[in-house]
Amino acid sequence: MKLTPDYYHDRVCLNVLAGSKENAVAVHQAAEGHVLVGVLSKNYPDVASAIEDMLAYAKLIGNALSVGLGAGDPGQSVMVSHIVGAVQPQHVNQVFTGVGASRALLGQHNTLVNGLVSPTGRVGMVKISTGPLSAKSPDGIVPIETAIALLKDMGGSSIKFFPMGGLDHVDEYRAIAQACARDDFYLEPTGGIDLENFPTILQIALDAGVKKIIPHIYSSIIDKTTGNTRPQDVARLLAMVKHQVQ
């Protein structure tokens, strides 16, 4: 199984959720493979059942699997690490403090592991206290350059900036994109991204020179009645990517 995502023009890969295995196949096809399909650990009662089901997902979509926490839930951090060690997906979502454990249990450096940092209201500064205990403690706020260096120390691949609230923290996001470009780190904007603000959010990262960009587009493209991500919306997102990435 391939361990690295299929980026469009080696630059952008979408990240969307799947409500079922059939939905995973449909969104994978709609994105022409340039997508990571999220399945949440929070939806399973234990590690064993998650591993069994996620392996089945991975087989259907060429291992373009993104193992998720579930709204950045720090309580899922340990479970995610145990799952990914067995499943070996292309992508892992982690809280900041869970990155090292996931990388160690993966036992390889090809799978992409992100580390969640949150907005602070201060340009150039990010909150890294996103772990099970640290999230309940006074905020740990550091310069974005320090956060990137710490993630590199732990074997991380990218910054997951969440919750963005779409363009609510655009100045902070732009500074993070510039830091990722300077420090050769990947970027994953997440939270409140929809079909309207997606082009702007993508363009900011492209203009900054970020090497690899993985935008997460979740609830805005999910059909509320079925719980499935709409393949036609994924196709629209890919069309936008193709228009902006030359």
What does this protein look like?
37% of the residues lie in helices and 15% in strands. A seven-stranded parallel beta sheet has the order 1-2-3-4-5-8-9. A two-stranded antiparallel ribbon has the order 6-7. The radius of gyration is 16 Å and the shape is globular. The longest helix is centred in the N-terminal third of the chain and has 14 residues, at 47-60. It has helices spanning 21-30, 47-60, 77-87, 99-106, 144-153, 170-182, 198-208, 231-244, and strands at 14-17, 35-40, 65-68, 91-92, 112-117, 125-127, 141-143, 158-161, 186-189. By secondary structure, it is α/β, with parallel strands linked by helices. It is built from eight helices and nine strands.
Terminal CA distance reads: 29 Å
> What is the number of helices?
8
Largest sheet: 7 strands, parallel
Helix percentage range: 25-40%
- The amount of beta strand, in percent, is 5-15%
Order of helices and strands: EHEHEHEHEEEHEHEHH
Overall geometric form: globular
Query: Class by helix and strand content?
Result: alpha/beta
